[in-house]
Amino acid sequence: xxxxxxxxxxxxxxxxxxxxxxxxxxxxxxxxxxxxxxxxxxxxxxxxxxxxxxxxxxxxxxxxxxxxxxxxxxxxxxxxxxxxxxxxxxxxxxxxxxxxxxxxxxxxxxxxxxxxxxxxxxxxxxxxxxxxxxxxxxxxxxxxxxxxxxxxxxxxxxxxxxxxxxxxxxxxxxxxxxxxxxxxxxxxxxxxxxxxxxxxxxxxxxxxxxxxxxxxxxxxxxxxxxxxxxxxxxxxxxxxxxxxxx
Length: 246
Prior knowledge:
single chain, alpha+beta, 5-stranded antiparallel sheet, two-stranded antiparallel ribbon
């Protein structure tokens, strides 16, 4: 990682195990550039087979006491739903009782894309799940939050992931050239572990995805955060460029 102007860089791991670099600067500057380069090996299968535990093949199922404790807040809804609109929408994907767990999650994943129209959104922040349902459109981060929150309404332990989308063929939503920032969700299923779901592209498994950070909420996965001191007109613009080559 190269930072201009020069900074004192310290590394640590947050509560989710994400590697976090903190940069502190000695003086004033009129620009900031962060250049991060990494070599990454992806070995995810195109069509993964998930070894789901016998106890979790059918939904509903119960996490073990240890799993339930460790998943903690990842099973708890993060956004208000006083009218239970999201709850009712998520429950609508449960076709029978019992039903196949993986099929349910795949239906929910595809259902987000069927219900919501993709639209790139450069403004700061993320829509709440009910806002996304009301508007009927959203960016990849809005898709990810809607999927994660709906899965939690069904009792699943779920986390949000931010990273990059590798799309050399330029045929996936959210893609710009060969690489783009992207967001998706992961659901913990006993036996299989964390299963990747990309509701923006209705995909399961991470063959096109490069994870950078995971968190309970999308705000915990922001690639770059920080603050600066200056006048109200100090901030003029920001540019982000992502290049993924193979």
